[in-house]
Specification:
Layout lengths: L9 E5 L1 H7 L3 H16 L3 E9 L6 E10 L5 E10 L10 E9 L5 E6 L1 H19 L6 E5 L3 H14 L3 E5 L3 H15 L4 E2 L3 H5 L4 E4 L20 E4 L16 E4 L2 H4 L8 H5 L10 E2 H5 L13 E4 L4 H18 L3 E4 L2
Pfam families: OCD_Mu_crystall
Family: Belongs to the ornithine cyclodeaminase/mu-crystallin family.
InterPro entries: NAD(P)-bd_dom_sf (IPR036291), ODC_Mu_crystall (IPR003462), ODC_N (IPR023401)
Length: 338
Amino acid sequence: MTDTPFPPIYIDYLNRLDVEALAMSDDEILAAIEGSLAIQGRGEAVIEPRMHLEPGVARGHFNVLRGSLGGAIDSAGVKVVGDFVDNYQRGLPSELAVLTLFDRFDGRPKAILDASGITDMRTGAVTAIGAKHLARKGSKILGHVGARGTAYWNVRLLDRLFDFDEIRVHSRRPESRDGFAARLSQDLGKPVVATTDWQSCVEGADIVVEASRLEAPEPMLKTEWIKPGAFVVPYGTMSAVELSLTDIMSKLVVDDWGQCKGGKFGSLRAHVEAGKLSETTLHAELGQIVAGLKPGRENEAETILFWHRGLSLSDIALGHAMLEKGQKLGIGQRLRFA
């Protein structure tokens, strides 16, 4: 047995069952994400553009997200998330992820968390916080395309903020969209309509979210369906929107321009390549708006688009909030690292 030349290092470990046991409330999730966006907006964070690994043996890829978050959190983190479209055939979610947190001052590993739920929750929270600052306050109709894991939290957290009168959802497979609508209706305590096509889902909606699962870019969401004054959030891996979508927008907002302007995936990749979305046409990053450095929605007539690619900073912030709650409730495991 050799002497350890430094104090013991322990890692907190939260598996999927632990994350579920935490029962993070909607307000806890929203607060963690809005706080992290403000930290980013104030320039107290470092975020690296995501990287992709395509194993080439299935229809899917891994995303590797990296960042360092200051403020009251002071953690660096790396999340690796697999995104495999055929996983439903194996009874698995399409996205499975692991988040590792580190002390950003000395590099000590601090925690390992199942991040599949974190990915879903933080994505929905970023969508909702975007709407809080960029959608009309009186928005009452939501049109949501897509029924994957992140979709549930999009709708749930948006409804938490807006208490919609009408919620429409659509996805390609009938069993998927019907099951999605039934789950939402039960959890939200209100009717949720599953539509059979894109147009009836999004046309005339106050808030439109496009989270589709296309195999290749295809303009399924038509620009003419977007009503003036709407708030539109396209974030599918493959583009489902027309090139003309950005032409009708009063403001274009992203979560992080560094990662939105590069890479091969993303709903507005063609718009970046065509120069329709650029540093010149970009209004702001959402964090700048949350921090009060740039204006959000300024009048009811503005039609606004928000594209988010997914922030490592959001993963870090929500993971940090989960660790703190777990420590208070005695949930999770502590592992000796060194």
